[in-house]
Fold this sequence. Notes:
Elements: E1 2-7, H1 8-11, H2 15-30, E2 39-44, E3 60-67, H3 72-90, E4 97-104, E5 110-111, E6 114-115
Parallel strand pairs: 1-2, 3-4
Antiparallel strand pairs: 1-3, 5-6
Helix pairs in contact: 2-3
Amino acid sequence: MILVYGIKEHLNPIKSKLSDVIHGCMQSVLGMPEDKRAHRFIPMDADDFYYPGGRTASYTVIEINMMRGRSVETQKALIKELFSRIHSEVGISPVDVEITINEQPAHCWGFRGMTGDEARDLNYRVKV
């Protein structure tokens, strides 16, 4: 599950393209299948979205929640790919993008009526 926050006037016009770029990175770096896109966009009023100095109104926060298992190198590769492709394909400078990866053990995930550690039919690898 990926959550994306930004000022609504800047985030709403790019949601579709940004979703495509994020999912493309998830596919190329993590091997996620095409049909495993789970993005939630949270457009906010400017007066509800405080951001650090030196950033513009395009400042965007991306929170990636995933099951534990990806190596540090893989996680760093994902972050770097996101910075690069968001800049080249969406036009948001890396200084205006903040990315966090939150990992939880598989037993903390629930989907399709089971926990993540019970799933035996995932069509992607978690340990990459």
